[in-house]
Structure formats: C-alpha cells, structure tokens
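Subject: HTH tetR-type domain-containing protein

B.,
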Amino acid sequence: MDKISLDKETILNATEEVIRRFGPDKANITDVAKSLKVSHAAIYRYYNGKTALWNAVTERWLTHLHAPSNDILKEDSPADIKLCNLLKNFAEAKRLSAINDPEMFANYIKLACNSMEVIEKVKKDGMNRIEKIIVQGITEGIFFAESSHQAAKSVYLATSVFIHPNSFEDPDRKQNIESVVNLLLRGLKNPNK
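Prediction pasted inline below.
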C-alpha cells in the first residue's frame, strides 16, 4: 500500500466521504482504509473501532453544523434578538442538513439511536449557548430567571421538537417555530420592563 500521511483529520475527512458514498449502514472501516490506501489496522491506531470513528465524525459534523451559532453569540445585539436568532438557527440547521447532506444526517440519526455520548454533548453545548444569552439578557435587564441554567434547559427542551425529522415536513413549521420562540421570549421577559 502507498505511504500516506495519516492523522485524525485525514481519517475523519475520508470517513465522511465514505459515509456519503455508501450510506451509514453500509460504510465500514475497511472502506475508509481503502479510500486512504492504508490497512484497516492503520485506522485502529487512531480510533479503537467503528463506533469511536463514527462518533468522532458525527461530533465533528455537528460542530460544523452549529458553527453559525458561534457568530450569533458574538452579535452585538440585545439578548432577546440574539436568542430568537439562535433558536431559529438550531431549528433550521438540522432540517437543511437533512436536505443538503442526507447521508451525514442519516448517520447522525443512526448515532442518536445507538449512542447517547455525542448527542448528550451536543445537547449540553446547545443549552450552554442558550444560557449565555439568557445571562446576557438578565444582565441587560431584558430577561428574568431565578436560574439561568434551568431556564436554558427549559428553552432547549421546548424547541428541541423542531430538530426532530418528523417536524421537517410540517407545512406549519415556520409558524410553529415563531409561535414557540415568541412564547419563550415573553416568558423570559423581565416583568419590570
């Protein structure tokens, strides 16, 4: 086999390509190794099996998927506008990925059914982003919450229905997102403002 400079990033890139080519059910480590022109044992030096590799590729994919939310956190805007933008971004990111990158989305769904480790990390990250904005809103006097953590968890849970594939084809989806986000923002508003 040809010598290739192998690292985790190269393996993850190849794994995404293989998943997109064969789908998450048929793709395997041997396919990844063949695409890199290395032995499958070379892959095991970096990842101790298919589950670890698929978890890593899904985690990286989700990180890229949610990268725009980092920009939202940096926006110079009031917390209520920022939270509205973030929640809409969360809802649309998964729907658009299901349309634009169906194989990787299918891999994410499969992982969500089989391994909660990556999914729990993503949920925690989403709640942390929401909490940062809620804390900003409390500081600005826009929001009131006895516990920013509990408020963030409640907001996440209330909007998580929109990241589920069953909601993607709902003809009232955009209206429903708007209604839920507006309700949540009204619930967080400081009653003294």
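The chain is about 75% helix and 0% strand.

T.
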